[in-house]
């Protein structure tokens, strides 16, 4: 240990090197945060799943920053409620704000997505930022899960967002600018037991948008994948179970998750800085991502032990 930390011989250079690297990293992070990034004032921003949770908070944060919003969801009444709340808060905003439009459609019905994309484009004639946020979670044991549940989760979390992205991309390419954002999850990087359908849909999301980022680079259209850990929303309440019924429980881990307003602020920062890939999670899930990559055998053992402990899906 002493030698590693610079006790003697060639190790003397190691401690200063570690300290210099750590300081350089800290300095870079501070500079990165201070960078103002692109302005979203008057930018046309489309948010799916804007009726609740993280999508609703993103609507609040981007509205206050002066974006022209198009809010999407399945329930017109809930979307209108969000519009009313934002309009009422307009007086407090430091920027000039705009009354949001709403577009109602079901992402799980990919046949309606082209029509929805047309409706979205009619609102302001173009789209600057598409935030694919809508999603549904799942709780269940693979042995008891009907294949139709896997398909349903994939329709909402994967096929819907990619269909909407592909329907809006041609207009971004024509105008020569745009930005695609997707809210994935830490479970798009690591798979934990009793979340198979959800983790699979988020892994697929990560893979598709990583490919898209590479393919769009020559067109200067950035792609941002955001992978949060637990957020305090109704995601677990709205989750489906193995037989397709609603889970209906606010898990303790979700209840004690991050404040959705903080996560929405981080989404705004990622959009402003055109970040490519952002993991917004605490120390343990972040370590788990690295463990899966660099010491998979240990990660698999830990997950198997977790599966044994949580024989029936209950919490987190
Ligand atoms: N909460 C967490 O712990 C957490 C962690 C990591 C990642 N995320 C991700 O964050 C995103 C937002 O989730 P949330 O936590 O805010 O959950 P939420 O409160 O349940 O919100 C989900 C949103 O998605 C919309 N939605 C669901 N199915 C849809 C469909 N078929 N078509 C159109 N819209 C649909 C819902 O709108 P309507 O029901 O009104 O249509 C709702 O606005 C999701 O992608 C989720 O995977 C959440």
TrEMBL record:
PROSITE patterns: ADH_SHORT (PS00061)
Domain Ketoreductase: 43-234
Gene Ontology CC: cytoplasm; membrane
Gene3D superfamilies named in the record: NAD(P)-binding Rossmann-like Domain
Keyword set includes NAD: yes
GO biological process: lipid metabolic process
Transmembrane segments: 12-31, 278-304
Protein name, entry field: Dehydrogenase/reductase SDR family member 7B
Lineage per the UniProt record: Eukaryota, Metazoa, Chordata, Craniata, Vertebrata
Gene that specifies this protein: dhrs7b
């Amino acid at each position: 240990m002493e030698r590693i930390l610079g006790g003697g011989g060639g190790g003397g250079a190691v401690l200063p090197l570690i300290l210099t690297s750590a300081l350089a990293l800290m300095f870079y992070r501070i500079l990165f945060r201070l960078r103002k990034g692109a302005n979203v004032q008057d930018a046309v921003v489309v948010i799916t799943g804007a009726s609740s949770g993280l999508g609703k908070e993103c609507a609040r944060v981007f509205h206050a920053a002066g974006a022209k919003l198009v809010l999407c969801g399945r329930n017109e009444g809930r979307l209108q409620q969000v519009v009313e709340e934002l309009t009422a808060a307009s007086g407090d905003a430091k920027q000039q704000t705009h009354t949001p439009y709403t577009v109602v459609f079901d992402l799980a019905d990919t046949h309606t997505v082209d029509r929805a994309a047309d409706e979205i484009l009619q609102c302001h004639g173009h789209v600057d930022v598409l935030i694919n946020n809508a999603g549904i979670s799942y709780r269940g044991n693979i042995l008891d899960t009907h294949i139709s549940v896997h398909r349903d989760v994939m329709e909402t979390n994967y096929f819907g967002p990619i269909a909407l992205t592909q329907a809006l991309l041609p207009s971004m390419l024509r105008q020569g600018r745009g930005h695609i954002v997707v809210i994935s999850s830490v479970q798009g990087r690591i798979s934990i037991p009793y979340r198979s359908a959800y983790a699979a849909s988020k892994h697929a999301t990560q893979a598709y948008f990583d490919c898209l980022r590479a393919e769009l680079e020559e067109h200067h259209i950035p792609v941002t994948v955001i992978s949060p850990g637990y957020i305090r929303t109704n995601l677990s309440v709205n989750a489906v179970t193995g037989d397709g019924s609603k889970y209906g429980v606010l898990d303790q881990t979700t209840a004690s998750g991050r404040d959705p307003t903080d996560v929405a602020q981080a989404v705004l920062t990622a959009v402003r800085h055109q970040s490519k890939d952002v993991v917004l999670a605490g120390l343990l899930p972040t370590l788990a991502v690295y463990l899966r990559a660099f010491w998979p055998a240990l990660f698999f053992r830990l997950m198997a032990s977790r599966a044994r402990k949580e024989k029936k899906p209950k919490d987190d």
